[in-house]
Amino acid sequence: ALESIDFKNALEQFQNLVEKMIIQKTKESSGLYTKDGDEIDYDKFYSTTRTLFGPAVKDQNIQAFFRKIMSNPDEGPEWPEIFGCFTEERDDMSSPSKENMVLLISEKQQITHSVVKRKDVIKGIVKVPHLHLTITASQRGVLTVFNKQRKSFFSYSLYFHQDTAWITGCDYLPNLKYVVAVTESTVILWDYISKESKSDGFVIKPMKNCLLCVCTVTMADNLAKDTILIGDYKGYVYLLTITSDDFIMKQSKTGKVSQFKVMDSESFDIPKRKLHDDWVGKIKYFPALKRFGSCSTDSTNSFVLDDIKRLEDQLPVKEFSVPKGVNAFTYCGKAKVIVTGG
């Protein structure tokens, strides 16, 4: 407890130091700063940081932190960076037994593959542990599957572009072995292991409301189909079941989107139910509970946890109210608790 209090005090002093540096740099840029005895240069920043945290920080991290503040004071770095948490992993830190004196840093491997280009951002990351896959989806349409084999990563990328639609979420269909992603008005199904083309797949459209998130409902009762849940900007949650037969039977005659075959959304039975009065921020299915969860910034119906059957009937759902809503949630099976973040 004493160490915790000491670290909190040291962190507060460090944050005050950073704030003074940002003010100083801003004044220097505007020509309003006059040098005096309180000027903070690199030597003063280094000695103060070393006094506060001791050997828990490395010289190169102190230098990088200082340089980042001086080059762009408007985008100040976060305090964990001073401990090297967001910097490239070095060979001498490859052992999982290495422990920082302040923060426990587990072993990690950096993927140097350039997933997205400038002005693009990652909108979803999904891990598929049993297949050693990691899937990422970028806002501007780059879907990437990282396959860890022989201690290295192989990637398969797809650039999906349709008008100006942005990808808003992704997941993996374990039975059909497709990557699923949603844009503002479509559902993308990418056959990433297809031998015919790296851009082989299907697009379900049009979806009437703007889609914001997607997740897979994990059930092993049928190996020829997968079920997904989708949340939209009007508070609706959709239940969409896709079978292998749909790829053959429900292709539209309207042509293709890029390399993808189009399937008419009207040909699917897609139950939906309005669960929130604001955007659905996140949706997730918990196999251990046999329930799905969805959250929203809606203060009245902030978090819903219930059976997916509730999307096909009008029975009351288990819901919780949180002031200003819920932005994120997760479930811990060992502790049997659900944690929400607003």
Automatic annotation (TrEMBL):
Signal sequence coordinates: none
Alphabetical list of Gene3D superfamilies matching this protein: YVTN repeat-like/Quinoprotein amine dehydrogenase
Entry annotated with the keyword Repeat: yes
Highest taxon of source: Eukaryota
InterPro entries noted in UniProt: WD-EF-hand_domain (IPR051242), WD40/YVTN_repeat-like_dom_sf (IPR015943), WD40_repeat_dom_sf (IPR036322)
Keywords associated with the record: Repeat
PANTHER family in the cross-refs: WD REPEAT-CONTAINING PROTEIN 64, WD40 REPEAT DOMAIN 95
Name of protein: WDR64 protein
Lineage of source species: Eukaryota, Metazoa, Chordata, Craniata, Vertebrata
Gene: Wdr64_0
